[in-house]
Write a structure and sequence with these properties.
abc type-2 transporter like fold, ABC-type transporter activity, ABC2_TM, transmembrane, about 5% strand, Putative membrane protein, 5 strands, mainly alpha
C-alpha cells in the first residue's frame, strides 16, 4: 500500500460520520480563532486606554497669574486618554491600593507657585506625583509613566517659554535706563535744593524789609501824631513874643529832638535801602529789577527827605529864636507859615511808609509761598530720586550660580516623584502572574491527554458518581500539584523571580492548578473528545481577556464578559497581589471565585459520572477519538 493510499484511508477514517467532519472543521478553524481573537484584542490597546480608570488629584492653589494645575487637569480630561476621576488624595491612594484606579496623578498645592518661582529668583521644580501599583497591572504603570512624561514635556515647554520671556527679556536695558533716570533725578533734586536755599534767602530778606517798613510806618505815624498840633502852637508862638521867649528853650529842644529823629529816620531809610538791595542781589534778582526797587523806595522816601529838611530848618529857626527874642516874632511867623507844610509832608511820608509796609508784607507772603512750593518740589524730586535708586536695587541682577540655576529650572521646571506602592522589578516579573496562570491551565490540559477522566472499572462496579468523579480528579490534581512545585521552584531559584509572599503564592498556585484540573476534568468527562477542544478554545478566550499584559479594560468592550466570566483573570489578579505585595483583600475574592469554579467543575464531573453509569452505543464505538 502506497503512502498516498494510507493517507487517504486515514482521512476517510477520521472524516467518517457527522461529528468527525465537524471536528475536522473545528480543528481547521483553531489557528484562525486563535489569531483573529488575539489580534483583535491587541490590535490597538492604546486607543482603548480611555477605559482605564485613573485618579486625578488637583490640589494646586494657583497664583494670581498662573493656574497650572487646573490647566493641566483640564487638558488631561479633555484629551480623554484615560478614564480620569478627579478625587481627593486619600481617595486616590486607597483607589490605587485596592485596584479601583490603575494609577493616580497628583498636582500638589504649590505646583503653580513652583513653576512661577524662577521669576522671583528662588527657582524650584514643580513636582507631579505618580502613584502606581504593579499589583493592578504592570504595563499600566509603564503607560502611566509615559503619560506623565508627556505632561512634563508640555508643561516644561509652556512654562519655559513664558518664564524666559518674562524673566530675561530686556533686563539689561531696564536696569541701564533706570540707573540713568536715577542719576537725572539726583541732579534734579540737588538743583531744587539749591533753588530752595535761594528762595529761603528771599523770604529772609523780605521779612526784614517788612519789619523795617513796619517800623518806619510806626515812627512816621508817631511823628505825625506828635506834629499835628505844631501849626496851632506855632500860631500861638507868633501871637505872643513873650510866650515864645518863655518857651523858646523848650521849643528849641523839642525842635532839635524832632530834627534828630527825622535825620535818624532818613539815615535808617538809607540803610534799609542798602540792605534791601544787598539781599535782593543775594537772592538772585536781576540788577535791573534791584534798581527798580531802589528807585521805587527812593521815590517813596522823597517826602521824608523833604520833610527832614524842613524839620532841620525849623529846628535851626527855633534855635535862632531861642538865641534872640527879637527874632522870635519873625521866627514864629516863619514857623507858623512852615508847619502846615511840615505836617503835610509828614502825613504824606506816613502814607507812603504804610504803602511800603503793605507791599513788603505781600512780598514776604509771596516769597513764603514760593519757598513752600519749592519745598514740595524738593520733597517730590527727593522721593523720585530715592524711588529710582530703590528700583535699581530691585531689578534682578543675579550672579552666575543663580543665573545658571534659574536657566536650568526654566528649561526643566517639572520633576516627577514616583510613589510605587508595589513594584514587580523586571519585565519578566511583571508578566510572571500571567504566564504562571497560563502554565497551570496548559499543564492541566495535557494531563488528560494521558489520563482517563473517569474510571471505567469503577463505573462498571457501581461506585457512586461522587466517588467516581473525585477519584478521576484526584490523580490529575496530584500531578498538577507536582507540576506547580517544579514550576515554582525553577521560577524562583533559577529564573530568580522572588515573590513578596512565596508561601501565599505557592498556596494560591495550588488552588489555581486544582481548579483548572477540575475544569478540564469536567470537560473531558462530560464531553469526551469534544471537551479537549472546548478546553483549547477556553484557553484562547482567556489569553485575550485575562489582562495578563495590558490592563484588561483595554480589550474591546464586547469581550468584557469573558474577563468576568472565565477563571484565569481571577488567577492572574490574585497572583499579582501575592507576588508584588499588593492589597490582600482582593486575593480572598479571587480565591473564592476559584473555589466556586472548583466545586462547580466537580459537580459537572459528578453529573458526567452519573450519566456514564449507563453504556450507550456511542460510548462503545465513539465517532471521534482524540
Amino acid at each position: 500500500m502506497t503512502a498516498i493510499r494510507m493517507a487517504l484511508n486515514e482521512l476517510r477514517r477520521v472524516s467518517s460520520g457527522k461529528l468527525p467532519k465537524l471536528a475536522l472543521l473545528a480543528l481547521a478553524l483553531v489557528p484562525l480563532l486563535y489569531a483573529s481573537l488575539y489580534l483583535y484584542a491587541n490590535k490597538d490597546p492604546y486607543s482603548n486606554l480611555k477605559h482605564v480608570p485613573a485618579a486625578l488629584v488637583v490640589a494646586d492653589k494657583g497664583t494670581d497669574q498662573l493656574h497650572a494645575g487646573r490647566d493641566v487637569a483640564d487638558e488631561l480630561v479633555k484629551g480623554a486618554r484615560f478614564d480620569w476621576h478627579q478625587v481627593s488624595e486619600d481617595e486616590a491612594e486607597k483607589g490605587v491600593r485596592d485596584g479601583t484606579y490603575t494609577f493616580a496623578l497628583t498636582l500638589p498645592e504649590d505646583f503653580s507657585q513652583a513653576l512661577s518661582s524662577p521669576g522671583a529668583f528662588t527657582p524650584r521644580q514643580g513636582v507631579i506625583t505618580l502613584t502606581t501599583n504593579d499589583a493592578n497591572n504592570y504595563l499600566g504603570s509603564t503607560i502611566a509613566n509615559q503619560v506623565v512624561t508627556e505632561v512634563r514635556r508640555s508643561v516644561s515647554v509652556k512654562v519655559g517659554e513664558e518664564a524666559a520671556d518674562k524673566l530675561l527679556l530686556g533686563f539689561s536695558t531696564i536696569r541701564q535706563k533706570t540707573v540713568e533716570a536715577a542719576d537725572g533725578a539726583t541732579k534734579l533734586a540737588d538743583a531744587q535744593q539749591s533753588a530752595l536755599s535761594g528762595t529761603q534767602q528771599l523770604v529772609d530778606g523780605a521779612t526784614p524789609l517788612a519789619d523795617g517798613a513796619a517800623t518806619l510806618a510806626g515812627g512816621l505815624d508817631q511823628l505825625r501824631t506828635q506834629t499835628k498840633d505844631l501849626p496851632a502852637k506855632s500860631q500861638q508862638l507868633a501871637s505872643g513874643a513873650k510866650q515864645v521867649s518863655d518857651g523858646n528853650a523848650t521849643a528849641a529842644t523839642t525842635a532839635e529832638d524832632y530834627a534828630a529823629k527825622a535825620q535818624a529816620l532818613v539815615n535808617g531809610l538809607d540803610q534799609v535801602n542798602g540792605d534791601i538791595a544787598t539781599k535782593l542781589r543775594a537772592a538772585g534778582m536781576a540788577e535791573e529789577d534791584v534798581q527798580k526797587v531802589l528807585t521805587a523806595l527812593t521815590t517813596a522816601k522823597a517826602p521824608v527827605d523833604d520833610a527832614n529838611g524842613k524839620v532841620q530848618g525849623a529846628a535851626g529857626q527855633l534855635r535862632q529864636l531861642a538865641n534872640g527874642a527879637k527874632q522870635v516874632s519873625d521866627g514864629a511867623a516863619q514857623l507858623a507859615a512852615s508847619t502846615p507844610a511840615l505836617t503835610d509832608a509828614i502825613g504824606k511820608l506816613d502814607d507812603g511808609a504804610g504803602a511800603l509796609a503793605s507791599g513788603a508784607v505781600r512780598l514776604r507772603d509771596g516769597a513764603t509761598k514760593l519757598r513752600d512750593g519749592e519745598q514740595q518740589l524738593v520733597d517730590g524730586t527727593t522721593k523720585l530720586r530715592d524711588g529710582l535708586n530703590d528700583g535699581v536695587g530691585q531689578i534682578p541682577n543675579p550672579d552666575d550660580p543663580t543665573r545658571d540655576a534659574t536657566a536650568k529650572t526654566i528649561g526643566d521646571p517639572v520633576n516627577v516623584r514616583g510613589i510605587s506602592q508595589t513594584a514587580a522589578g523586571t519585565y519578566g516579573a511583571g508578566l510572571a502572574p500571567f504566564f504562571l496562570g497560563l502554565a497551570t491551565w496548559i499543564g492541566a490540559f495535557v494531563l488528560f491527554l494521558l489520563l482517563r477522566p473517569l474510571s471505567r472499572r469503577a463505573l462498571a462496579a457501581g461506585q457512586t458518581a461522587v466517588r467516581v468523579a473525585v477519584g478521576g480528579w484526584l490523580p490529575g490534581a496530584l500531578l498538577g500539584l507536582a507540576q506547580v512545585v517544579v514550576m515554582f521552584s525553577v521560577v524562583t531559584l533559577v529564573v530568580d523571580i522572588r515573590p513578596s509572599d512565596p508561601v501565599g503564592t505557592l498556596a494560591f498556585l495550588f488552588l489555581t492548578s486544582m481548579t483548572f484540573v477540575a475544569i478540564l476534568h469536567a470537560l473531558n468527562a462530560l464531553l469526551g473528545a469534544v471537551g479537549k477542544f472546548v478546553g483549547l478554545v477556553l484557553l484562547i478566550l482567556q489569553l485575550v481577556s485575562a489582562g495578563g499584559t495590558f490592563p484588561w479594560q483595554t480589550i474591546p468592550e464586547p469581550l468584557y464578559p469573558l474577563h468576568y466570566g472565565l477563571p484565569m483573570g481571577y488567577a492572574v489578579d490574585g497572583l499579582r497581589h501575592l507576588m508584588y505585595g499588593g492589597e490582600l483583600s482582593g486575593v480572598g475574592h479571587d480565591a473564592l471565585v476559584l473555589v466556586a469554579y472548583l466545586l462547580g467543575a466537580l459537580a459537572l464531573s459528578t453529573l458526567a459520572a452519573y450519566r456514564q453509569r449507563v453504556w450507550t452505543p456511542s460510548r462503545l464505538k465513539p465517532e471521534l477519538v482524540l
